Structures are given as C-alpha cells and as structure tokens.
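Lecture notes, unit on protein representations.

Consider one protein chain, 133 amino acids long.
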Amino acid sequence: MNSIIRQRFDTIEALLIENPVIISYEVLRCVIAPFDGKLRIKAVLSDGGTLELFEYVAESGGHIHLLKYSFHWQDAQTKLKKRWDNASHYPNLPNAPHHIHLEDGLVLEITDVPDVFSVIKQIEAALTQREDN
C-alpha cells in the first residue's frame, strides 16, 4: 500500500466529513496498490442532489498524478448539473482530454485540470449561494 496515496484518499474523506453541503457519503471503491490507487465515492448533497467522484492516481517521487477522473454532479431529480472528466471522447477540444459537460448539453474545454477539492469548492459555492437567495 502506498502511504502518499492513502493520505490523499484520507484527506478527501475528511473534506467530505467536514463540508457543510455534504450530508453523507459512501465509499464504493478504494484500492491502493504500491504505485497507484482508485477511489470511487457517492455523496448526498444538502439540496438532495448527488456527487459521484472517481479518481485513478499514481504516485511517483512523492507526487500524486491524476491519471483518470470523473466528478459527476446531479440534482435531486437526477438531472446533470456538471460533469468534469478526462475520457477521450472529445479529442478535438483544446486541452483534450480534459473537459466539462454542462446541464444544457454543452461540452467545454477545461484549461485548469480539476481535482476533488476544487470541484467540491465549486459545488459548495453554488449551493451556498442558492441558500442565500
């Protein structure tokens, strides 16, 4: 087991526990090998929506490299809000394979590769803003 990957996955779980817009979560898969690891989590949000997180990471020289990811956010009626991923199904986008699917069906390029932490921060901001209005 890789202790650096274990620490990353533990940090993700701590964020889910501490975040006010995450009501509950379930670890669907957590595999940590000597050089890589996979984490899949389904979280229930304060508005009744869900967030499904998937990361496949590798560790090299003490650094984590995000190899594959999908962060799927949907509302309580199971309608897509956003999905960030790096599946190779949009090869012509700048910065492919990184892209984001929007609720209106558009697919846009991503210039900054997201991680679990930035995605949760974006969702928290959106849900908090909704509660304030």
